[in-house]
Amino acid sequence: MKKALITGVTGQDGAYLAELLLGKGYEVYGFFPRRSTDTRWRLQELGIADSIRMVEGDLTDPASVLQAVIKTQPDEMYNLGAQSFVGTSWNQPLFTAHVDGLGVTACLEAIRNVSPSTRFYQASTSEMFGSIQEAHQSETTPFYPRSPYGVAKLYGHWITVNYRESFRLHASSGILFNHESPLRGIEFVTRKVTDAAARIKLGMQDEVRLGNIDAKRDWGYAGDYVEAMWLMLQQEQPDDYVVATGVTTTVREMCRIAFEHVGLDYQAHVVIDPSYFRPAEVDILLGNPAKANRILGWRATTSLDELIAMMVEADLRRLSPSR
Ligand code: NAP
Ligand code: GDD
Predict the structure, then answer these.
(1) Contact call for residues 127 and 178 (beta carbons, < 8 A)
(2) Could you confirm whether 96 is annotated as catalytic?
(3) DSSP conformation class of 173
(4) Atom 7 of ligand 2: nearest residue by CA position
(5) Is the CB of 212 under 6 A from ligand 2?
(6) Do both 139 and 26 map to the same domain?
(7) Which residue blocks in 32-174 are alpha helix, DSSP H?
(8) Is 149 considered catalytic here?
(9) Are residues 175 and 202 in the same domain?
(10) pLDDT for the residue 322
């Protein structure tokens, strides 16, 4: 039985990845930071909370990362833990750098020193492209991050490449474009909108306040994207891969899809609130997933319409369980 250690197991991707690996017969260890309340709601919604062996630790505490690797001796380690909200990274830039940047080195050092055959996955991001240098962003597109989060993640990406080249670790970096699901955190724009559309439909609120709705994102379904993470670690050679749909859509259009799903016009309910504008914006992201298609045999299978419908329906069910 293969063993996998997942940091960020209580997050959106951690939950779907744990579900995927359990389904493949893995023994799954979840590395999680202590919080004052139980953070396992996603694992509970998927019905897998009791199937994961939890190992307490924090990415900002290298000793705890080392202990987790010594204790579990994983065949595969997926580093999904992060301060993942771009907006917060301007308010907590040093914390973000610590978790999202140095935390990656803590993982790589632990593997290098006590478990060098462990295969490693780093959760890199399309935010690293930031102010885009090519219309379709691929593995060879130059980076230009536009947020403290993007800058920290760029360090995490390059240290992964560096440890692969320096110490011949099987370390891969997945450059994933935005991916969403019913388990998405409520502060991210898709879930904020699907939750609001459901609440407005049920008469629980009247409006939703948003920032820059002209921004464009390449949105896919998280359930599809965790499959790509796993595929990367099954390859003989470690490498870097862009994972994306190859389609980009405005926040505005995403709002239209969500509100139309419940028979409403978004224009009557969306209010622009400048407090949600960011100090520097990523105007557009559009990925070129050709390498992942060719080498991993991976492609996105869920359209934005299907994804948003799935999310609105899940929010309606949460708010009105008798539906
Ligand atoms: P998420 O839902 O915000 O989950 C992040 C996870 O990291 C949570 O379990 C969180 O635990 C944990 N975490 C935070 N600080 C930590 C620390 N100091 N030590 C250990 N764990 C910590 O994020 P996600 O959407 O699943 O994304 C997973 C990863 O992919 C992240 O690294 C993210 O930056 C990256 N990524 C995401 C996307 C996307 O569109 N979703 C795209 C590209 C890359 P708490 O909840 O207890 O804080
Ligand atoms: N969150 C949020 N809230 N975003 C808004 C709002 C709002 O009220 N109004 C407009 N937006 C715009 C943001 O300015 C941004 O251009 C876009 O909607 C998407 O914002 P988020 O959903 O917060 O995602 P993100 O693109 O900043 O970051 C996500 O994707 C990255 C990959 O590109 C996160 O999941 C990151 O962790 C991930 O790396």
Answers:
(1) no
(2) no
(3) E
(4) 210
(5) yes
(6) yes
(7) 41-45, 62-72, 88-91, 93-96, 103-114, 148-167
(8) yes
(9) no
(10) 78
The model's pLDDT over 239-298, given as tens digits with 9 standing for 90+, comes to 999 999 999 999 999 999 999 999 999 999 999 999 999 999 999 999 999 999 999 999
Q: 240 CB under 6 A from ligand 1? A: no
Q: Map residue 245 onto helix, strand or coil.
A: coil
The whole-angstrom separation of Cα 55 and Cα 38 is: 14
Neighbours of 260 (CB within 10 A): 16
From 84, 107, 149, 254, mutation site for ligand 1 pocket: most ligand atoms within 8 A of C-beta: 84
- Domain hosting 280: range is 185-218+247-285+302-319
The token duo for 6 is: 């997942």
Note whether residue 295 is domain-resident: no
SS3 67: helix
Encoded amino acid at 226, one letter: V
| CATH number for the domain harbouring residue 253 | 3.90.25.10
Whole-angstrom distance, CA of residue 191 vs CA of residue 208: 12
187 CA from centroid of ligand 1 (Å): 13
Pick from 192, 216, 217 the residue to mutate for probing ligand 2's pocket: most ligand atoms within 8 Å of its CB: 217
pLDDT at residue 321, as a whole number: 77
- Average pLDDT per block of 10 residues along the chain, 323 residues long: 98 98 98 96 98 98 98 98 98 98 98 98 98 98 98 99 98 98 98 98 98 98 98 98 98 98 98 98 98 98 98 97 75
Compute the distance from residue 203 Cα to the ligand 1 centre, in Å. Answer: 32
Catalytic choice (105, 118, 125, 160):
125
Question: Choosing from 78, 149, 163, 221, which is the catalytic residue?
Answer: 149
Q: For residue 98, report the distance from its CA to the centre of ligand 1, in Å.
A: 13
Determine whether 127 is an active site residue: yes
Does 294 map to a domain?
no
